[in-house]
Amino acid sequence: MVVSAMLFLCLEMEMVKSQTQRVPALFVFGDSLVDVGNNNFLSSYAKSNYYPYGIDYTAGPTGRFSNGRTIIDFIGYLLGVPDPPAFANPSTVGSRILNGVNYASAAAGILDETGRHYGERYTLSQQVLNFENTLNQLRSMMNGTALSTYLAKSIAILVFGSNDYINNYLLPSYYNSSYLYNPQEFGNLLLNTYVRQIMALHSVGLRKFYLAGIGPLGCIPNQRARAPPGRCLDSVNQILGTFNEGLRASVDQLNRNHPSAIFAYGNTYAAFGDILNNPAAYSFSVVDRACCGVGRNQGQLTCLPYGVPCPDRNQYVFWDAYHPTQAAAYVFSWRAVNGPQSDSYPVNINQMALM
Known about the structure:
Layout: H1 5-16, E1 26-30, H2 71-79, E2 100-102, H3 124-139, H4 144-153, E3 155-159, H5 162-169, H6 177-180, H7 183-203, E4 208-212, H8 221-224, H9 234-238, H10 241-257, E5 262-266, H11 268-277, E6 286-290, E7 316-318, H12 326-338, E8 344-345, H13 349-354
Parallel strand pairs: 1-2, 1-3, 3-4, 4-5, 6-7
Antiparallel strand pairs: 5-8
């Protein structure tokens, strides 16, 4: 039975109040879908530290690209883990890092050049280096045996790939990747680069990895603005298969090659596809435009400072041109933590936490 997103939210948030912490820490790597404010401290055009971002978040605009909480906020709540702070925040030191750290950066990609037209951002390779900075701090706070156990029980969540398409491959006026590679070649380039960096994180002690696939980018308001009325941009969705299918296959290979670790693939494409195809089942009524933005489908520009968003935000799947509302983020997060293998393969995040 499918229950509405907001009913799920009310039920789960009440449960979390008394929930014990299931893992010692969450280490978050990714892009704007999980950025909690790192770009506030960078010279970047990709920022969301202004109203109406955070309109439904108790702390207001924090740098989260949402009207409220993000995917990573909900995953943390469901695991009983306090919000991992932004790495770039000068206060993210000492005891504040013990529940994990968030390295995610808006406009970041798997490839170093992705998103460069937005200015500074922590690319995947830089986020891995930033984690090693955190490790140096942790080494001063616990002995080697304790640190190894702590890292092995913690969960690394990686959310990458979307920008490598929408802020690289699909922008031929800024990047030459679409001239150099066909879609299959580009997907394989991303996968090879991604797995190398995942192995770098494994080599320094992390053992539990949740790797989110790419959602149906052709259906975000920014891409719908280029599609026929009422349609997703199917050509964009079609080129994502190499990456998503390859990431799932990579998870199988990584699990075979590293039996002391566990890697899981998050089927973002199917989860968000289900929301878009069956919105009423989740109490959504608007799937084809953003709650906040400018232009066709409110998707050609993101929310402008002090812009007026839609009043009924829980009815919308998309908050702005690129990002889900907190209601849609919650549905995906719940499925990532608790869902069947079709949502998270071969285990979900809750099962991973118990390992």
